[in-house]
Here is the input.
Amino acid sequence: GIAEEHAVSMAGGMAKQGQLPVFAVYSSFLQRAFDMLIHDISLQDLHAVFAVDRSGLVGRDGETHQGSFDVSFLSTVPGMTIYAPASFSELDAMLGLALYGCDGPVAIRYPRGGEGAYHDCHTEAEFVLREGSDLTIVSYGVMINEALEAADRLAEDGIMAEVIKIGRIRPNSFDETRLSVGKTKRLVVAEDVCAFGSVGSQILSSLAGVTEGFDYQLLNLGDGIVQHGSVEELRRMRGIDAQGIARAGRTLSSEE
Here is the structure.
């Protein structure tokens, strides 16, 4: 194995000397270097890139490898930019932005395995993939495939869902989401991370006092440790697959 704490500190030293380090690391192992991210990188506003592999659910790698906490702890690091590519083309483009279009620390979170049906490339903080008037669905990374499939299922029931893809988690003012929720009055955020510090909780915080009178459901991995299982099994168990997202959308749409 490697010493993740030392690797982050080494990246800081390299950045201090004018180099541009890229540290490729599993999400669950980067947790060990949280102190170094703050004191050796963020405190000095050093430009270092962290390629955070195995973000989100990793399936049969087991409990120790589930990348369910990176959004929460990386969001607390001052000055950190966080990208969440949903396709190979986005990963390539966002790596370029992280290297040559950003200052300070940058993290790119991506999952184990390949991409889904979504192959496009939108690097914006937010992008409306599908317009709708009845419900707003927000997601990011490969989970956007579940969100789009859920929108298809809801359309069969006459519920027109607007789907917003988050490309950059931080910094993000969530303006597109605010405008959409102001229109639909219903929000579902689906993500494969822990509940505390999730993008959903960040969105609710940004909407507080600005957008009123809307209903919402935050779909995520909840609290605690995610058990062993395939990605498909765990998504279904946690209600964050297309069926679970569609179910949440129907529930909100039936509430008057």
Summary: The longest helix spans residues 4-16. DSSP finds ten helices and ten strands in the chain. Residues 126-254 form a domain with the Rossmann fold fold (CATH 3.40.50.920). The mean pLDDT is 95.
